[in-house]
Amino acid sequence: MPGVEVKVEGLSKSFGRANIWSDVTLTLPPGEVSVLLGPSGTGKSVFLKTLIGLLKPERGSIVIHDTDLVRCSESRLYELRKLFGVLFQDGALFGSMNLYDNIAFPLREHTKFSEAKIADIVAEKMEMVGLTGDEKKLPGEISGGMRKRAGLARALVLDPEIILFDEPDSGLDPVRTAYLNQLIIDLNAQTDATFLIVTHDINTAQTVPDNIGMLYRKHLAMFGPREVLLTSEEPVVAQFLNGRRQGPIGMSEEKDTAQAERELAEAGELAGLPPLKPQLEPSAGLPERRAVARRRERVESMLHTLPHAARDAIRESYADEAPTGWMPTVDDDPTTQLPVVREDSVDPEGRHRLS
């Protein structure tokens, strides 16, 4: 059974007078891996906490299994939270407990399983994340990467349908991040759960997800198939993916238009987007991700609505496995391009936002 679909409509969150983001609308497809990008301070972690019901939005809905988490009873919300597994930035392990007891904790709190069954489940999840043999170690005795994996094993013990990752690469070097990215893909192949990853790591965004979203200017500027954002020539996307100073993103917030244009003029011609990298596949010996076939069917149905560059990238990725008889149709003609445009795609200053 695939992970559950998560449908978010018109979600808005503020702390007092400070608006964090407004009118966030997206659907996490069941069983697929999605990534949420954005400059620091744009409220990505706040979005995860709102999604799981730890924070209450001012407006909007979050629908899972035909239930709106924003408006349901506390008892129903408590039950729905069991559908989620969460990997926090630091693993959020109890320092006084060894890894076995940390991972067993949700089972002891939320089930009536015998200790023998708990032991079997903990052993299974520790093997999945490569921690077999480390059961007696304390969090302070292991590396940051091992703490992440232990936190991930704990997030898996209740067999969640939705797994949230809050900056899983935080504090890890590029090599450990690469190992963790492969582990995420491997776990998705084994569980078919719905994954949402908040990250700043560009390599993660380029190689892991089926879908990518980007929070910018207090709105969800874009969400869709990974190829849409990774081939977008919007200045904010190019700046973020290239990790450069020139562009609309400033140190603490977005720059004004005049400053951004002046910097770009002074810099002259800048390199475009990084090359599109292939998506990671499960490790040898693991099953294929079931989400891949579902995603292909979904993406092909919306192909005619996507920008030219995204269409080309999608066609190229499927070139060697295109189904017999699948040919470009009249809807694929460049003259019929239908970019995805939100009704609120013009900000208060009259500029078009990403859509």
TrEMBL record:
Record Pfam families: ABC_tran
Top enzyme category: hydrolase
Keywords for this protein: ATP-binding, Hydrolase, Nucleotide-binding, Transport
GO-annotated molecular function: ATP binding; ATP hydrolysis activity
Ranges for domain ABC transporter: 6-242
Bias type Basic and acidic residues, positions: 341-355
EC number(s) from the headed UniProt entry: 3.6.3.30
Region annotation Disordered: where it falls in the sequence: 268-292, 310-355
Superkingdom of origin organism: Bacteria
Protein name: Fe(3+)-transporting ATPase
Originating organism: Pseudonocardia dioxanivorans (strain ATCC 55486 / DSM 44775 / JCM 13855 / CB1190)
Taxon lineage: Bacteria, Bacillati, Actinomycetota, Actinomycetes, Pseudonocardiales
